[in-house]
Request: fold
Amino acid sequence: MRRAVATMLALAALVIVLAPRSALADGDPASDVLIGENVFYPYSPTVSTSLQKQLNGETAAAARAHFPIKVALIDTPADLGAIPTLFGKPQQYAHFLVQEISFLNVKPLLLVVMPAGYGTQHLGPVATNAVASLKGPVSADSNDLAQAAIAAVPSSLPRPVTRSRTYPAPQAPEPQTRRFPLQSSPRPQSPPRPSCSLSVGGERQPRDAASTLRAGLARVPVDPL
Reply:
């Protein structure tokens, strides 16, 4: 008898200890997820894998730019856990959610997307007005909520985020050979022709040997045959 009573008391104590934690976990699903993740996705219907990858890429790019933003997609009242009355009130829910995920005075940037529109926290006046001017989701479908969030995340940041791009690898410059102008070598000069002077008939003849010979032959008398 005593053993049965002790067992019941132990079980009751265990229920008392575990009950608050279970209530807290089921109270607000998005706050539990956003502590470790950047995006909370609806449980049902689920967002397509391609859109999840795209939205995750947008939040990762914002984090690399030192603007880590949290995004909550709320498709149905079931996504709000114990506070379904905030469904359709994205700004009120954003005010509640940011308190659940803030620690040590760190206030994260927050974007809430519901079929009724957007809710924001800590984005600054310029980004808040930019998000407010955006067109809301085209329908209550979870994929449309994701599409709206993908368009809203860049507008939620204080300055534009440069996304990673693929650039060609830099190539080493080709070695440049120093070119010098070609210098023509001087042509060898031929030695001056030897000159000779011949005096024929008392007259000084040209210095050229051939001319001297011709001039001498012209003055030689020729006997008639």
